[in-house]
Design brief:
heterodimer; A: 112 residues; mainly beta; 7-stranded mixed sheet; B: 113 residues; 6-stranded mixed sheet; 5-stranded antiparallel sheet; 11 strands; globular
Amino acid sequence: GAVVSQHPSWVICKSGTSVKIECRSLDFQATTMFWYRQFPKQSLMLMATSNEGSKATYEQGVEKDKFLINHASLTLSTLTVTSAHPEDSSFYICSARSEEQFFGPGTRLTVL
Amino acid sequence: GENVEQHPSTLSVQEGDSAVIKCTYSDSASNYFPWYKQELGKRPQLIIDIRSNVGEKKDQRIAVTLNKTAKHFSLHITETQPEDSAVYFCAASGPGGGNKLTFGTGTQLKVEL
């Protein structure tokens, strides 16, 4: 199947700092990528749909000014968690869609 | 929007037994129903999927059934093995939701020796 990479795999940061997470589709072009957040022992919750060349579509309750998404090319989408706080600590997973959705390996964010 | 419910939340079976996980969805326009297996700290892995024009699909020990009228679909794992232990998620998507996936709440499957 198609390969989606994510970087970094884990990050620890201080409260108030910003963190950027990259999601790349390695062997196909993805006009649409998705960003999910998963808290321990919970399901994947869609945060936003990232569209190449246009603004992301955010799910209800997700602050677009806090979670900045940029989809500058057909193979790269980035999620920036701005002014991170401990409650933002979570597992962030991206996916890219070809015929089916392929998930990245996830990024474990810990905010101290 | 779409709402997907999944049961049970935990399931413990003996090795060799069958396991069944059930999901219901709310949006009659949904037409794609994948199942994912997720091990701790890893990405979800697609194990089987079914589209709305099919009632059943099987891949070795794994099968999925879909009842469009009742809006529910089920995952069946036969001859379970310890390596089947993981969290399983169902999901649904369709044109009404922009083809984005809505996930169920997950089932922790434990296969005991």
